[in-house]
Amino acid sequence: MAEEKKTRSYSVAGKLVRRILCITTFMLLMFFFGVCVYVIAEYGIGVVSNDFDLYSCERYKNKLSLEIDNLVCSVVSHEMRKNDTELTVYDVGNSVARTYDVAKIAEGNISENIEDLDAYVTNEEEKKLNIYDYDTVKSFINTSAREYDNKYLYLDNETFANIFKKNGLQNTNCWLSNNFPEEAYIIYKSEGLMLRLKQLEKSNVAIVNSETEEQYYEYTNTDMNMDGEDCAVYDPLNDVYYSTWDDYFTPFERYVYSLSELKNNIKYSTESASISSIIFPLLWSQNRVTLFTDSVESYKQGMDYEKAANSYDDSAFKYYIRGGNGDIVYSNVEGSEDIVYDENYESYVIKNGSYDLVAPTTRIASEELWSESSVSEWLGMMEVGSVVYFGFNPNKIKFGDVSDTVSFIWGYNTFGKYIVFFIIGTIVLLILLVVQAISLIKITGKRDDSGEIKLTWFDKTTTEFWLFVYIVTVVGSAMLVFFIVNKALNKSSYDEIFILQYGTIKTRTCFDIITAMLIVVFSSLPFGIFFMEMTLSLARRIKAGNLGSKMIIINKIAARFNRKKITDKLKFLTRVYIGVQVVILAWACYVVYTGKLSILKSMIVLVVFFILVWLLTILTSKRFIRDVEKLKEGIEKITEGDLDAKVALNNKYTVFQELEDGINNISDGLKNAVEKSLKDERMKTELITNVSHDLKTPLTSIINYINLLKSEKMPTPEAEHYIEVLDQKANRLKQLTEDLVEAAKATSGNIELTMMPLSFDELMRQALGECEEKLAEKNLNIVTSLNGKAAAGPVMVMADGRRLFRVLDNILQNAYKYAMEGTRIYVDLSAEDNVVHFSMKNISKAQLNISAEELMERFTRGDSSRTTEGSGLGLSIAKDLTKLMGGTFNIELDGDLFKVVITFPEYIKPASTPSE
Amino acid sequence: MNILVCDDDKEIVEAITIYLKQEGYNIIPAYNGKEALEIMQNEEIHLVILDIMMPELDGIHTLDKLRESSSIPVIMLSAKSEDVDKILGLNVGADDYMTKPFNPLELVARVKSQIRRYTAFGGIDKESENVLVNGAIEMDKDKKQVKVDGEPIKLTPTEYSILKLFMENLGKVFSSSEIYEKIWGEDAYATDNIVSVHIRRIREKIEINPKNPDYIKVMWGVGYHMDKK
Predict the structure, then answer these.
(1) How far apart, in whole angstroms, are the C-alpha atoms of residue A765 and residue A760?
(2) What is the CA A818 to chain-centroid distance, rounded?
(3) Number of C-beta neighbours around residue A510 at 10 A
(4) Are residues A795 and A802 in contact, defined by beta-carbon separation less than 8 angstroms?
(5) Strand stretches in A796-887, DSSP E
(6) With b meaning 16 or more CB within 10 Å and e meaning fewer, what string describes B82-114?
(7) Residue A772's CB: how many other CB atoms inside 10 A?
(8) Sheet of A121-126, strands arranged across
(9) Tell me: the pLDDT tens digits for A142-172?
């Protein structure tokens, strides 16, 4: 058995390997699952079916459109930058436009003093701008780009304050209030529109497009936290400007671009040889401006940033821009524009103020890529006669190329196409994980040789602590999944493609899916280990059965009722409790997963729910346990013999009420039965006593008068003989009466026994001493032998001394009466295996022609003549008494050998050996 | 000496009367408790033999009433042979308890013993510290003589030593091996029942009814002891 056990227990190394395998499976599963989620979120559920066409999907078009936008914008701006030698700044407060020599500034010979910049002024002219007027602002914004080309407007803080008078700029993270008049403007960056605040009924505020009156957002005034939203408000009535931005690349704040900062930025930009990147974001209050970046340049810089510049291959793109004067201003292809025409490239051209699809129509109609506004915008920006060619070959996309579209296509080619494989892999891995988990659960918490379950310190902590850690783990991993999904679903990912700082572009790259998967896989390592250990700990707790006893709430209840046992038995209560917790947990995970509530709110809800469940459990279980307690007490009372005990429950649960009635009925029924049997018993005892009394009284007279007669002189010797016979028979009658009563009581068990530990060998000596001489009369020799433990010292048994003596005495009397004269009587006493054996053997003088059973029956004696003394009850009484005291009594007959064997369980208690 | 014999069985009363008269006692019969109590008030009685199950007033109640005013010896004589009955009788105030059917000679002996003790109460001289007294037994250690009810009895030296051990340690229980070691001065042989035999012989000499001993009592399976009378 021990060997079998050994083979079933696993070595520490074996367990460790199993765990590592399990974790590995979990990590793989997370990777596969993560890919599935990511791909389906990115490309839609249609990606699973085979007819999914990446190039016709809406998101591809959007991304490509964005790509082209960026490129065209950058090309246009690039051209502009080339001619940029001067910088014009409008001082709106003084209505003066100053033109600076950029080249000189870039040389960096500028002191800290702002006024020093004046030295670089090449031109200064008066300009009238009424910025208070909405229409003027709008037209200024709309026209300035055309009108002033590469001239830019800067205002210092002081000037800005002058313009906006009074309170100046309130650059705070303000809450929009309904105190804003309707005329207030909202510049909403993400919409790229000049919006107007519209007062709705009650306290609600809406933001509407001032041109189309289209409503965008509706806020209650208290809910209008614009923090994080790219939004600013100008209130023309009060001349107050409100902004929620911190950075300067926002439409209105561009005006406050101070000269000192200009100075610094020019310095910085000189190093990166890209002055344009400082000034591009200016003036355009519309969204396109933020995208108006040197995309290609940014790619390169981005790649520098990623230390991957050398490997950059932009062969997926082809662009060719020719200025109005016929110069090629920007291109990544050598030679003529014809080279752009390649049937592998989706090619587009902007030419002579209109756009056209030039190259073979590969997949997407050009109309879907070119929005009216952007085209017109760019067309407006371009010199007359300029041409832009743009080609894009999705098949040339490689891992490592940096671009939103590149990432999108690479992601599809790498994962999206094989989504079915990943789904199947997920399922297989899940099954594998379950199998491994079950095997681990089986192995853990095995009982060792001593039957103990090995528990770690964590297993010994309270169940609540386990639940807490478990919840943290579950919520944590739910949050992780949510993060990944959110990342994939993030609609605002387009917005990430804008300049953060001077030309460094932050785009979502195709690294992102890899990064996301790496995060998933490596985060799943600690979570997986936690999950596994939590689950195994739960398994061990259940196996060790301390799930309930380790639960504080259960112990609290137990302490309240001061009955640990009963609460231990209420295991199902524990299960209900845990069940409810798990349901809540699942719900919480769902909430966190769907992001319906913020983490904080869901945590609060979770805590509140836990407290509610806690209270509910305490309340219900209190009443519940109280009832069970009462039922238990009732049953205990009845068991202890209190038949008048009644159960009365406080809370009438239906189930318990039935039990209550049942228990009360049992006690009634028992009471009746006991009363009846008591009555019977009493009557029996009374009968015995009465009969014996009635027999004894006349017998007394008979014996007395016979004795008197004996002292008288008899007339004849015959008379003396008759009296002798009378005397004999009277004494025999006396003996018979006593035996009869004794036998009746012994049979009915109607004897009060005084059980105490006593030494069998001492009693045997006493009994033999009492009758030795009597036996000697008949020349019967007693041979005593003590064997086993009895030879060494006293052997103790639990018995009533007087009754046990009676047993031995009866046996010896029996021998006296029926043993053949001159023979030996063998008496043996031995104790082995906690059993005391007593045996007595003698040779019967009469032939034993009856069975042992018959011998023990009443009124049967060794000889059937029944003439001698003795009632024939001796053995019967001895047998009954022995049985009453918990011993056995057997008679064995072998020819004329008569053997009595009495056994008693040995009483073992070293302290009580009075014979010592 | 006046002895009141109270039993509802007239034949028994008569038989007892015959036996006791032979010993020279004056017998006053009564046939129920009430009668007995009335006689007690009018006559000078030295000993009462009382049955328990009687009409009118039973023995226990009679004894209870009797003990309110008198301390004369009372021997209960009853067919009730249960331990409970004996204990009850002795507790109520009986000096002895005999069960029916009884040996008339034993009854006579017990009557004699009770009367002797009653009349000699306090009269036994404790002549020296070397005289041990328990109930009717007197043991003179100087003379190595033992008297029961004033009658000297013959004991062998071993029997005398055993009795002395009990007399000197009233109430203490000795197992047979302990007695053997103390008297014979050597380790007891386990199978030897010589002590029990000796004790039985002592009992035959000092007890009225050796099978129902008053002095050296057996605790079956434990040992022997002598209680203070």
Answers:
(1) 9
(2) 83
(3) 24
(4) no
(5) 796-799, 824-832, 835-843
(6) beebbebbeebbbbbbbbbbbebeebbbbbbbb
(7) 18
(8) A86-91, A96-101, A121-126
(9) 333 333 333 333 333 344 334 333 333 333 3
pLDDT over 70 (residue A781): yes
User: Which chain A residues contact residue B216 at CB under 8 A?
Assistant: none
What is the β-pairing status of strands B26-30 and B2-6? parallel
Residue (of A725, A442, A486, A717) closest to A594 by Cα position = A486
Assign A403 a pLDDT band (cuts: 50, 70, 90): low
Which residue do the tokens 């690349």 mark?
Answer: A249
- Written as six digits, the tokens of A363 are 């997949």
| Residues in B touching A692 (Cβ below 8 Å) | 79, 81
* Pair B174, B224: CB distance under 8 Å: yes
Which SS3 state, helix, strand or coil, does residue A426 take? Answer: helix
Q: What residue type is assigned to position A245 of the chain? A: W
Residue A475's identity, in one-letter code, is: V
**CA separation for the pair A571, B132 (Å, rounded):** 72
A119 secondary structure, DSSP code? G
Cis ω before A251 (30° cut-off from 0): no
Is the Cβ pair B220, A805 closer than 8 Å? yes
Range from A118-132, A598-612, A696-710, B143-157 carrying the lowest mean pLDDT: A118-132
- End-to-end, the C-alpha distance of chain A in Å comes to 44
| Distance (Å) of CA A690 to CA A683, A752, B89 | 10, 18, 18
CA torsion sign, A605 to A606 to A607 to A611? Answer: positive
- The DSSP H or E segment spanning B109 is helix B104-119
Write phi, then psi, for A463 (nearest 5 degrees).
-65, -35
Residues from chain B that touch A916, judged by Cβ atoms under 8 A, are: 175
Burial class of A778 by CB neighbour count within 10 A (0 to 12, 13 to 18, 19+): middle
Task: Please give the Cα distance from A330 to A340 (Å, whole number).
Answer: 13
Task: Report yes or no: B75 and B110 within 8 Å, Cβ to Cβ.
Answer: yes
Residue B210 in contact with residue B159, Cβ under 8 Å? no
Tokens 């519940």 — which residue? A624
Please report, as a single letter, which amino acid is at residue A124.
E
Percent of chain B with pLDDT over 90: 5
Helix axes A12-43, A511-544, angle to 10 degrees: 140
A763 touches chain B (CB under 8 A): yes
Q: What is the pLDDT, as a whole number, of residue A158?
A: 42
Q: Choosing among B52, B100, B107, B224, which should be mutated to test the A contact, i.e. which has the most A CBs within 10 A?
A: B100
Across the interface, of A702, A766, A786, the residue whose CB is closest to B190 is A786
pLDDT at residue A431, rounded to an integer? 93
* Residue listed under structure tokens 């006579």: B108
Answer whether A89's CB lies under 8 Å from A331's CB: no
ipTM above 0.85, yes or no: no
User: What share of chain B has pLDDT > 70, as a percent?
Assistant: 93
State both tokens at A589: 């995970």
**Would the pLDDT of A74 be above 70?**
no
With H, G, I as helix, E, B as strand and everything else as coil, classify residue A468: helix
Cα of B104 to nearest chain A Cα, Å: 7
- Provide the token pair at A572: 């199902």
Q: Check residue A903 and report its DSSP letter.
A: E
Residue-wise pLDDT tens digits, A243-271: 443 333 333 333 333 333 444 433 333 33
Helices (H), A829-885: 852-856, 874-884
Q: Which amino acid does the sequence have at A601?
A: K
Determine contact, residues A305/A287, Cβ cutoff 8 Å.
no
Amino acid present at A648: A
Q: CA distances (Å), A494 to each of A67, A231, A403, A405, A490, in order?
A: 11, 18, 11, 11, 9
Q: Which helix (H) or strand (E) element contains residue A555?
A: helix A552-561
CA atoms within 13 A of residue B118's CA, in its CB half-sphere: 20
